[in-house]
Amino acid sequence: MFNLQNILRKNIKELVPYSSARDEFKGEASVFLDANENAYGSPLSESYNRYPDPLQFKVKKRLSEIKGVPPQNIFLGNGSDEAIDILFRAFCNPGSDNVITVPPTYGMYEVSANINDVEVRKIKLTADYQLNMEAISEAVDEHTKIIFICSPNNPTGNSINRDDIETILANFNGLVVIDEAYINYSRQKTFIQELTEYSNLVVLQTLSKAWGLAGLRVGMAFASEEIIEVFNKVKPPYNINEASQELALEALQNVEQVNSWIKETVAEREKLKAELSILPSVLTIYPSDANFILVKTINPKEIYQFMVNKGIIVRDRSKVELCEGCLRITIGTPKENKLLIEAFKNFEELNKI
Ligand SMILES: *Cc1c(COP(=O)(O)O)cnc(C)c1O
């Protein structure tokens, strides 16, 4: 049976969290002399001389409406990367605990593990980029605290079988983190609705991709109230600044604009796939549920450099295990995608392919 108290680090269980001025007095008042702010104002606009809401209530309320999840089940981080780091700091004892990742996948899980001196047990995906269930089950021991699953996966683009994820959720006594950074582009449905079913589930999403706000640094974690309380205890008091909170709230009114971008991106993805697939330098295009495609090419290094010289930057993933020969290409605007295809054709002409 999963019990959060059993996997929480002792120092975190016993931690007395920092109590800010905004924690100690939350009501309405006309004179605030409790936080050593500049009472005269700020060189910008009125609100920036005050500390921001530590728990970002307005943003969470709006997200709650959009996602159908109560605000108490939402954590906001300075990017999802902050949520990943907090998971390590709250649950993994440096030098003794371990986590499982399933490469090729997002690099931050391993970097964050290394920063926190936590062992990473890497269980390669199968040749069709799915979970190796038997190997995962063998790798788990009593020190395994977290399994990270990215779906749709970066850099492969595919979604991970839902039944496999549910099997892990039902049988693993640690946290299962499902990183849904690309969920808006996917035919699969989110795991957010399963929060009531699985108390060990943490779903990560972000405003950095479909929402078009990578520069704002706002990531989300959805989990049980008990897990969110741990996040809030460990996080820096004012981790989302006032400007980001205001702009996020404003952006979250524009669901329709975002939905229309998602539709257009998916349509462009399919068009780009069709156009690339007939090129002789392109060997394989992997199925994608994301806003990028993984493309196996002949001589990826040369194609990469050729593109750079033309001012087009794609991601060279050709040295990554299971992605040999591959470039990861983000779906651009119709104009950008056209330039990419032209560059491919140009490369083929010059090299007589
Ligand atoms: C881009 C990306 C993120 C987003 O990280 P932020 O810190 O929120 O910008 C998270 N996970 C994966 C797999 C990603 O590719």
TrEMBL record:
It catalyses: L-histidinol phosphate + 2-oxoglutarate = 3-(imidazol-4-yl)-2-oxopropyl phosphate + L-glutamate. Residues 45-344 form the Aminotransferase class I/classII large domain. The modification N6-(pyridoxal phosphate)lysine is found at residue 209. Its cofactor is pyridoxal 5'-phosphate. It holds the Pfam family Aminotran_1_2. It is an enzyme of class 2 (transferase). Pathway: Lipid metabolism; Amino-acid biosynthesis; L-histidine biosynthesis; L-histidine from 5-phospho-alpha-D-ribose 1-diphosphate: step 7/9. Keywords: Amino-acid biosynthesis, Aminotransferase, Histidine biosynthesis, Pyridoxal phosphate, Transferase. InterPro entries: Aminotrans_II_pyridoxalP_BS, Aminotransferase_I/II_large, HisP_aminotrans, PyrdxlP-dep_Trfase, PyrdxlP-dep_Trfase_major, PyrdxlP-dep_Trfase_small. GO terms for molecular function: histidinol-phosphate transaminase activity; pyridoxal phosphate binding. The keyword Amino-acid biosynthesis applies. Its EC number is 2.6.1.9. One of its GO terms (biological process) is L-histidine biosynthetic process. It comes from the Bacteria. Belongs to the class-II pyridoxal-phosphate-dependent aminotransferase family. Histidinol-phosphate aminotransferase subfamily. Homodimer. This is Histidinol-phosphate aminotransferase. It comes from Daejeonella rubra. The lineage of its organism: Bacteria, Pseudomonadati, Bacteroidota, Sphingobacteriia, Sphingobacteriales.
